[in-house]
């Protein structure tokens, strides 16, 4: 990648690109990183606790995973400092070579595209349940045309999601991320309160598993944890937007974000599982009665949470397409406005293209349950494998003779 000198002076020769604005505060970085992780995976955690065989084994797997999740974020901040790149795929390509970089870009854009589709499907389902509550009808009487998911979801994309996704910098999302984080926290509090208050519809005693059925069932929740805690794709962009870009500062931001995320996920998983036991649904909100007003508010606020997470995912996917444009079309364009991929003449069409494509897939794909598992599997690459490769190659960039020779000889880093 441009600007990389293997075996050169390391951190001092590769200043990390910074945002053109005043920079992102530490608190803003915590909220954006937290909101990147708090997404649709929140609904699956009670079901994951059931699949793991109870609270203790699921919580143990979650805590062990948390150590590696935080380590991966810290490694990505260090790798961004060494490489001088401002995007995840740029860091991987700059440190690990063009072949690994292209593999990363392909996995990156497929993963983010599927996450965007999953987000829209979740929002569409919540809107559908909301209309069923507002305008109850009995078959064969159909719902009014304006309650159709194809109309409501399209209107939401045009009026809300597209304007939120238009800004050039990710720092703008710190305001919506605070709102989305509070919405996700409300859902966790509702699940805790419902366990203790025990409304009449939930008065039956749940059947709880005392131990996992097999040791493999404990690790079967690993893709759900990866899907739930996936914020590593946004880590480099957030780090490069920060006002204070020291590694210790970034480590503190990473620890605070994932500990807060772990608290929300654990409360949701534990109390959702204790409320319904083995009868818990994969979507925890589907286990509650549709007429409960508190749950309806939780549905609306969780939809708000997902809507505020979508622009962060789009920003990351758009950065990959902007890199494609810079390499393929930027130099060939005579107009200066089209040569700059972050300018409005390129950025806005790419944003519209992303929203349109994901909306079409969300409306016409029949089922996303299997895709969610695929998303969790691909996310493990960005959480564990690519950061590990970046760490190996980042250490090789330091002025240590034998490692530089090894790197040049084998061509891996």
TrEMBL record:
Domain Amino acid transporter transmembrane: 25-391
Topological relation to the membrane, as annotated: Multi-pass membrane protein
Residues that span the membrane, as ranges: 24-47, 59-80, 178-197, 217-239, 251-274, 294-317, 345-365, 371-397
One Gene Ontology CC term in the entry: membrane
Cited InterPro entries: AA_transpt_TM
Compartments, as annotated in UniProt: Membrane
Alphabetical UniProt keywords: Amino-acid transport, Membrane, Transmembrane, Transmembrane helix, Transport
Highest taxon in the source lineage: Eukaryota
Main subcellular localisation: membrane
GO MF term set: L-amino acid transmembrane transporter activity
Family classification: Belongs to the amino acid/polyamine transporter 2 family.
Name of the protein: Solute carrier family 38 member 8
Organism ancestry: Eukaryota, Metazoa, Chordata, Craniata, Vertebrata
């Amino acid at each position: 990648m441009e600007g990389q000198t293997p075996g050169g002076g390391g951190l001092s020769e590769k200043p990390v690109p910074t945002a053109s604005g005043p920079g992102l505060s530490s608190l803003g970085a915590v909220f954006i990183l937290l909101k990147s992780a708090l997404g649709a995976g929140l609904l699956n955690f009670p079901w994951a606790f059931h699949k793991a065989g109870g609270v203790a084994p699921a919580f143990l797997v979650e805590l062990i995973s948390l150590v590696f999740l935080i380590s991966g974020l810290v490694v990505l901040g260090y790798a961004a400092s060494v490489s001088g790149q401002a995007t995840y795929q740029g860091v991987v390509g700059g440190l690990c070579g063009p072949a690994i970089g292209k593999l990363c870009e392909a996995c990156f854009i497929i993963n983010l595209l599927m996450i965007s589709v999953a987000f829209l499907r979740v929002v569409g389902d919540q809107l559908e349940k909301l209309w069923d509550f507002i305008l109850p009808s009995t078959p064969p009487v159909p719902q009014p045309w304006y309650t159709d998911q194809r109309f409501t979801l399209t209107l939401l994309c045009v009026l809300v999601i597209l304007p939120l996704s238009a800004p050039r910098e990710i720092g703008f999302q710190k305001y919506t991320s605070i709102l989305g984080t509070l919405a996700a926290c409300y859902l966790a509090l509702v699940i805790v309160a419902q366990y203790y208050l025990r409304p009449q519809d939930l008065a039956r005693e749940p059947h709880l598993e005392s131990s996992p059925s097999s040791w493999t069932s404990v690790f079967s929740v690993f893709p759900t944890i990866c899907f739930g805690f996936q914020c590593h794709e946004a880590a480099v962009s957030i780090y490069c937007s920060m006002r204070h870009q020291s590694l210790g500062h970034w480590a503190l931001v990473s620890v605070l974000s994932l500990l807060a995320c772990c608290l929300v996920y654990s409360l949701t998983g534990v109390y959702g599982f204790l409320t319904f036991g083995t009868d818990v649904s994969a979507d925890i909100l589907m286990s509650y009665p549709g007429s409960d007003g508190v749950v309806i508010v939780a549905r609306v606020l969780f939809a708000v949470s997902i809507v505020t997470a979508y622009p962060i995912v789009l920003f990351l996917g758009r950065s990959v397409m902007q890199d494609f444009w810079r390499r393929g079309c930027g130099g060939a364009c005579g107009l200066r406005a089209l040569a700059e991929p972050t300018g409005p003449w390129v950025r806005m069409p790419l944003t519209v293209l992303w929203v349109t494509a994901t909306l079409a897939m969300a409306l016409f794909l029949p089922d996303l349950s299997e895709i969610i598992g695929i998303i969790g599997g691909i996310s493990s690459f960005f959480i564990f494998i690519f950061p590990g490769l970046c760490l190996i190659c980042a250490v090789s960039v330091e002025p240590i003779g034998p490692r530089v020779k090894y790197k040049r000889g084998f061509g891996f880093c």
